[in-house]
Design brief:
Number of strands: 6
Low-confidence stretches: none
Oligomer: single chain
CATH architecture of one domain: 3-Layer(aba) Sandwich
Order of helices and strands: EEHHHHHHHHHHHHEEEHE
Radius of gyration: 35 Å
CATH topology of one domain: Endonuclease, Chain A
Largest sheet: 4 strands, mixed
Mean pLDDT: 78
Strand content: 5-15%
């Protein structure tokens, strides 16, 4: 019995009444621009399943355009792609989607070098730098993007060489008055100060106290005064209570009362209470609504 083969040249068998396997008549067939446009319109908006995407990626993996289309056609395709992409503006959502897709993507050293060489000349222009800064600011406004960035960098340890490079980069770097002011204002924020205080306490506990809870030095008259107050109030007073990164000399949870014993070192030469003590009181009163009792020792 005579066997019929597909006329496209793939070498597959077909039924007697057919000349091609389904869609094989299109193979190696040059398409007009109008035909291509019609196909693209028909394919637009189609949802492709994950399985199909995986199949497509497997088929096209490791195949360059030169191998697929030939050298001359590949060059034409690259040029046309560049023309399409130049001046094309991406929406905020598109940029966010792109950043999501790139998270966890491992970039090789070769690719990093290529990107750095490409961006070297690009960011010499002030307008390009402003554009890039605007884009990053828009991205950082999104809370989900910030969370992803934090999670992606968690547990990452910098090598000694990277730390040295960062230090060397900032040596001799002169900041403008505006930049200095911006840094000062940022460090004055209560949330930033709270983080700094907690970080410092945790660091001291790890390095000096072997992970044990840190207890500050007790004043000369502190214990006797707090013992007398306990007897007067009839309630327990906690000693060296840690609140918002500060240590209170005494705290009564029933009365929501914060007690501070002001010894000579809490005052300046003129006899006024130091600024840091005033700031401490204001922050605790504002955030937690505690009432303060300050007792001055002679």
């Amino acid at each position: 019995m005579k066997t019929n083969y597909c006329e496209c040249g793939c070498g597959m068998e077909v039924k007697e009444d057919k000349r091609f396997i389904h869609n094989h008549y299109r193979r190696n067939r040059p398409l007009s621009e109008e035909h291509k446009r019609k196909i693209s319109i028909s394919e637009k908006g189609k949802n492709v399943s994950k399985v199909t995407r995986k199949k497509i990626s497997k088929v096209s993996k490791g195949i360059s355009w030169e191998e697929k289309y030939g050298k001359e056609e590949a060059k034409i395709k690259v040029i046309s792609m560049k023309k399409k992409l130049t001046g094309r503006k991406k929406s905020k959502q598109t940029r966010i989607n792109m950043s999501i897709a790139k998270t966890g993507h491992i970039v090789t050293k070769k690719t990093k070098k290529k990107i750095s060489l490409k961006n070297k000349d690009r960011f010499k222009d002030e307008k390009e730098r402003e554009k890039a800064s605007r884009l990053t600011k828009d991205l950082w406004k999104d809370a989900n993007y910030r969370k992803r960035q934090v999670l992606s960098h968690q547990g990452l340890k910098q090598s000694e060489e990277t730390i040295r490079k960062r230090v060397m980069k900032n040596i001799g770097k002169k900041r403008t008055e505006e930049q200095k002011k911006r840094i000062r204002d940022a460090n004055r924020k209560p949330k930033v100060r709270l983080k700094q205080r907690n970080r410092m306490i945790n660091h001291i506990e790890k390095t000096k106290f072997n992970g044990k809870i840190m207890r500050p030095n007790v004043g000369k008259y502190e214990t006797s005064i707090l013992n007398n107050l306990e007897q007067c109030f009839g309630y327990k007073i906690e000693r060296q209570k840690r609140v918002l990164g500060y240590f209170l000399d005494g705290y009564c949870s029933v009365l929501r009362l914060a007690i501070e014993i002001d010894e000579p070192e809490h005052f300046d030469f003129e006899g006024n209470l130091r600024e840091k003590d005033i700031r401490k009181q204001k922050e605790i009163e504002k955030e937690l609504g505690y009432t303060f009792l300050r007792i001055k020792t002679l």
